[in-house]
Amino acid sequence: MTNNKQAFPEGFLWGGATAANQLEGAYSEGGKGLSVADVMPGGKKRFEILSSPSFDWQIHADKYNYPNHHGIDHYHRFKEDIALFAKMGFKCYRLSIAWARIFPKGDEKEPNEAGLSFYEAVLDECIKHGIEPVVTISHYEMPLHLVTEYGGWKNRQLIDFYEHYAKTILTRFHKKVKYWMTFNEINSSFHFPALSQGLAPTNGANEPQHVFQALHHQFVASSKAVKIAHTLDPELQVGCMIIYATTYAYDANPINQLATLKQNQQFNFYCADVQAQGEYPSFAKQLWAEKGVKLAIEPGDLELLKEHPVDYIGFSYYMSAVINETATEDDSVTGNLLGGVRNPFLKASEWGWQIDPVGLRIALNELYDHYKKPLFIVENGLGAIDQVDGNFYVEDDYRIDYLRGHVEAMRNAISDGVDLIGYTPWGCIDLVSASTGEMAKRYGFIYVDLDDDGQGSGNRYAKKSFYWYQKVIQTNGADLT
Fold first, then answer.
1. Which of 185, 279, 298, 325 is catalytic?
2. Which residue range forms the structural domain that includes residue 319?
């Protein structure tokens, strides 16, 4: 295995990643409207609640807890947080803009200036510290009104609303932000469309027709955003963003091999094919037929997709998956919105996510061979229950071990010939988990003294991993000890 310590190129974008709905808090301040994230309760039964036919897109404070309403109060403490990122040495910081801060209902003509001013201040703070902002336009927080009034992304009208939103923020911020992404983990809708499409069982989540049609609308909207960005400045870089899970067949049984191929096609490649190559993949028609989908494609849609593909592939990688269609007993495991069966060669996190650094090297090679476009790992990390000592210090060697293995995999993939432009580990500061809506599941290099009920000082404390990652960045990935 290659171990070239000089593999990371000069200018490699080391940083970290967060999402507005998971750390800002201030969910009803500054003119912000409600988002889909604001009505999603916290707790380990979060997905079970959201998948229930009784889920009604309302806040039920008498029954559930909503940790993201407070987040970590980044809305008021962003200067302190960005200063800590700078102390770590971040070259870039991936953040998202909350759509409902800019257009509280999503369908207004005029934006909320308070929201624009807030993000202007955040971006200026990054630039002041020499940190390149990387902005996700929509990260699991579409305005709730677009769901309750329009039915979510299955409604084609959302293309116009998104285009207006994207044009507003791109016009305002394009001189401050070079790197953009249109939708976070767009392929998550295959397993849980509530987050990115605003679809629950009550308004179409269980109907493939609605999910695939919603994706088509998002693809068109994404291309419109790319067109706007490149019109403003041809040098702007706009990426897609997918979940990528390296997927293995359990054994050499052709049934499992074919099932793995099908899983890869739909989950790992379908969305990126459209966004990066500008056309639906060859397997799409068969996939639609199997799902009973008859896609409504309007004149000009396919031409727009072809003319305005994304510039790079952003993706999250946390784990790999194993497919076993011939299993005689249930040995299933959970993961980042997808599961599979247990891999006997891998260890797993406290949440059952199987840890596979070599799978990241495979993912990087598969994606680059497939698209020949620059890659950007914009999420990767280990969620764990951190224990603090009397000084709020966390000896998180388990997180360091996880990240070290994945950085080594990146180094090896670059030596393989992969064009990798950056790495922003997920939850560089503790925030509310997307999968469980908890503070208890922590990813950060920085410990935040808050629990699921919002109790605690809110003070920030560097973990052991903070200093480890600081050294990694200082040495451009040469020293991983």
1. 185
2. 13-474
Residue 385 sits in a domain whose CATH number is 3.20.20.80
- Give the confidence band of 7 by pLDDT, cuts at 50, 70, 90: confident
Q: Worst-scoring range by mean pLDDT, 60-69, 308-317, 339-348?
A: 339-348
Model confidence at 330, pLDDT cuts 50, 70, 90, reads low
Give the β-pairing of 247-249 and 13-17: unpaired
pLDDT of residue 36 exceeding 70: yes
As a whole number, the mean pLDDT across the chain is: 95
Closest CA to 49 of 68, 63, 35, 34: 63
Q: What is the reported pLDDT for 181?
A: 98
Residue-wise pLDDT for 250-307, tens only, equals: 999 999 999 999 999 999 999 999 999 999 999 999 999 999 999 999 999 999 999 9
Options 24, 141, 379, 438, the catalytic residue: 379
Sign of dihedral through CA atoms 412, 415, 420, 421? Answer: positive
298 is catalytic: no
Query: Is 33 within the bounds of a domain?
Result: yes
308-to-42, 218, 234, 263 alpha-carbon distances in Å:
38, 13, 12, 27
Q: Which amino acid is at 240?
A: C
Distance CA 368, CA 184 (A): 20
pTM of the entire structure? 0.96
Does 2 fall in a domain?
Answer: no
3-state secondary structure of 57: coil
Query: Is 141 a known active-site residue?
Result: no
Which tokens is 49 given?
């609640």
Mean pLDDT calculated for residue range 135-154: 98
Instruction: Provide DSSP, 60-88.
Output: -TTT---GGGTTT-HHHHHHHHHHHHHHH
Is 163 inside a domain boundary?
Answer: yes
Sort strands 347-348 and 354-355 into parallel, antiparallel or unpaired.
antiparallel
CB 225 within 8 A of CB 311: no
d(CA 266, CA 466): 37
Is the distance from CB of 325 to CB of 231 less than 8 angstroms? no
- Measured distance CA(100)–CA(321) in Å, rounded: 34
C-beta neighbour count of 314 within 10 angstroms: 32
How many Å apart are CA 273 and CA 281, to the nearest integer? Answer: 6
Q: What's the rounded Cα separation, in Å, for the pair 412 and 399?
A: 20
Stretch 179-204: mean pLDDT: 96
Domains: count for the chain: 1
Q: What's the CA gap between 284 and 282, in Å, rounded?
A: 6
Q: Is 443 left (phi over 0), alpha (psi -120 to 50) or beta?
A: alpha
Check residue 452 and give its pLDDT.
87
